[in-house]
């Protein structure tokens, strides 16, 4: 029972966090537009939001969590890489990525242990 509650909380928190960034882009909030200015991405907000929507939709469902997790990791990893080249704060993208990894570990720990041997030889 506790495990299911923890998984649901992890899913809710990570989904809300990502949804928050999606809505900021779709609403073209002044903070988001200002932050994207130095990156020359203010005209691409709808495209970036669409990418996040697809990745989040895949991440929410247990059948597609793997691909959703890898897409979100690639998206936020790319955000970190782009932010490192410009005078933009990279901390939010790093925090989002860490939280997504923690939530995914809570929801599906097998994703992080795939391919490891269990101490027996094949």
3D architecture notes:
The chain is mainly α. 73% of the residues lie in helices and 0% in strands. The protein has six helices and no strands. The radius of gyration is 16 Å and the shape is elongated. It starts with a helix and ends in a 9-residue tail after the last helix.
Measured on Cα atoms, how large is the radius of gyration? 16 Å
Low-pLDDT segments, ≥5 res: none
Strand residues, percent: under 5%
Find the count of extended strands (DSSP E, 2+ residues).
Answer: 0
Q: Tell me about the biggest sheet?
A: none
* Structural class category: mainly alpha
Number of helices: 6
Task: From the structure above, extract its key features.
elongated; mainly alpha; 122 residues
What's the layout of helices and strands?
Blueprint: H1 2-26, H2 30-36, H3 45-60, H4 65-84, H5 91-107, H6 110-113
Helix pairs in contact: 1-3, 1-5, 3-4, 4-5
Short structural description:
Helix content is 73%, strand content 0%. The chain has 122 residues and is an all-alpha fold.
């Amino acid at each position: 029972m506790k495990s299911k509650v923890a998984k649901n909380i992890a899913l809710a928190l990570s989904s809300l966090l990502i949804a928050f960034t999606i809505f900021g882009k779709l609403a073209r909030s002044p903070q988001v537009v200002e932050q994207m200015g130095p990156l020359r991405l203010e005209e691409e907000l709808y495209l970036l939001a669409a990418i996040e929507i697809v990745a989040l939709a895949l991440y929410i469902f247990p059948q597609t969590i793997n691909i959703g997790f890898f897409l979100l990791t690639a998206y936020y990893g790319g955000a970190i890489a782009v932010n490192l080249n410009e005078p933009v704060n990279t901390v939010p993208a790093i925090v989002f990525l860490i939280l997504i990894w923690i939530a995914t570990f809570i929801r599906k720990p097998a994703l992080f242990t795939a391919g490891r041997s269990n101490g027996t030889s094949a």
